[in-house]
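CORE FACILITY INTAKE
Project code: CF-77B
Contact: R.S. (postdoc)
Sample description: multi-component assembly, four entities in total
Requested service: structural model of the whole complex
Turnaround: standard
Below are the sequence entries exactly as provided by the requester. Do not edit them.
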Amino acid sequence: MSEVQLKDALDALKTNGVRITPQRHAILEYLISSHLHPTADEIYKSLESDFPSMSVATVYNNLRVFRNVGLIKELTYGDASSRFDFVTHDHYHIICDECGTIVDFHHPGLEEVERLASYMTGFQVNSHRLEVYGTCPACSNVNVQ
Amino acid sequence: MSEVQLKDALDALKTNGVRITPQRHAILEYLISSHLHPTADEIYKSLESDFPSMSVATVYNNLRVFRNVGLIKELTYGDASSRFDFVTHDHYHIICDECGTIVDFHHPGLEEVERLASYMTGFQVNSHRLEVYGTCPACSNVNVQ
DNA sequence: TAAACTAATTATAATGATTACAATGAAGTA
DNA sequence: TACTTCATTGTAATCATTATAATTAGTTTA
């Protein structure tokens, strides 16, 4: 786990006047160390042994706080649970249609697309979302057999 | 409304062995004529006067059928309702952060990004999803005043 | 340090979109 | 016409997420 990332995140919280509680510390630590894009429930279950009395509402509340501060991004997929991604450098996601695995890949931002969309629609553009879908190597191998 | 699109859609259903019921006809017609990316509930409410006894489950069931046949795309946004988009030529969406309006814009497909993602991750790529977010002209004007 | 104030946590109930289920109805086929 | 299959209906169930109210813990100030 990157201690630097954790320290920066805690500083960001302080700057925003957000108290640092043991639960928040643990959730942040988990988000930084696990690169698995966990759901709220996965975080809750993972921290259950360390915080037996923690409520699932606490996880949701704090994920919202972290998102508002800009520390994490929420990845939403219809009726399935949201997944949460600690914000580092710019990257996009590729998602396996079979097993749901999410893998990061680096690619320059699509500023040109943003510019064009803005020009064609008259919107002021803030951001964009890009995801690629396909079959991961593991699932491809299974299918072959 | 494009009669050609409706005819093609009905043909596609027949080819796939899907019966064409009055409800399905009406839902399809609504999806083609309205370019508002409606939710299941909006479709349900709009057809209520013509089909007083139609169940909301029928709308959901048939949207799933249409999606499986490839006639429509489901646009998902976390815990909010899914929106449904009749598939025509390639286009992406730009969405207003303030009011949620969805506007189509045309842009060449991002095959290069798909290729790069595939190369970097070893995935077989099937598709991608791109959305741009910003503020629509109407909301921009409101903010100025 | 102790009191006072504010924010966070907890447990639980409520919400709301979507799906599952069983019964009824309609379409296609022999 | 009878049979089989699929679609629709109404309702109950599911499940992620949020709201609420009470309790607890941090922070600030005297």
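Facility notes:
- The domain at 3-86 of chain A is CATH 1.10.10.10 (Arc Repressor Mutant, subunit A).
- The beta strands of chain A are 72-75, 83-86, 92-96, 102-105, 124-135.
Invoice: internal transfer
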